[in-house]
Amino acid sequence: KNQVEQSPQSLIILEGKNCTLQCNYTVSPFSNLRWYKQDTGRGPVSLTIMTFSENTKSNGRYTATLDADTKQSSLHITASQLSDSASYICVVSAGSYNTDKLIFGTGTRLQVFP
Amino acid sequence: EAGVAQSPRYKIIEKRQSVAFWCNPISGHATLYWYQQILGQGPKLLIQFQNNGVVDDSQLPKDRFSAERLKGVDSTLKIQPAKLEDSAVYLCASSLNRVLYNSPLHFGNGTRLTVT
After folding, report:
1. B101 phi, psi to nearest 5 deg
2. What residues of chain B have any CB closer than 8 angstroms to a CB in chain A?
């Protein structure tokens, strides 16, 4: 069964600190892995898209890693800001020529306090 | 570029009533999705369109939910009759191409539906 699991479920950190969010997946056939940021009351916004051959991808203070062998990904946030408070959703694309599906994790809720 | 537009932002109805949501995707995007997001969960796909054809509606409760995408542009999602468990945020998303080809998915801000 295609599945995406995220941990932790929630996280509280102080402004300026770093943090790492985890994503484990069992999806086949794997096409790509995406991280989204979802602010309260808003739709998800794409942070990164990584293919099988990519190990690391950065977007400003966000750095995603992908280990296709262990089927794990992480999202590292550097020097956190109050505006980083949001839910972070890991999404894996399972695709083949005839079909493609996005498998969503349940997200990690991050709260950054001053 | 303008983002994915959705309306209304909020809707409160009583159970057994009907409701409709509207979505205008980014211009030129061939693929359009409707997702249901229950509080604390990730989005769940309801229906996927490629232009004006349905690609996947396997998780759409067809006895009460319907969706259409006229002329391959705007889309509407309807619920009739609504149930309490339909209370959720309904997200519309669009992409230039299929997600298989690493095409970014752009979401609207959703419609929050409350069924009382």
Report:
1. -95, 30
2. 4, 40-45, 55-56, 91, 93, 98-100, 102, 104-110, 112
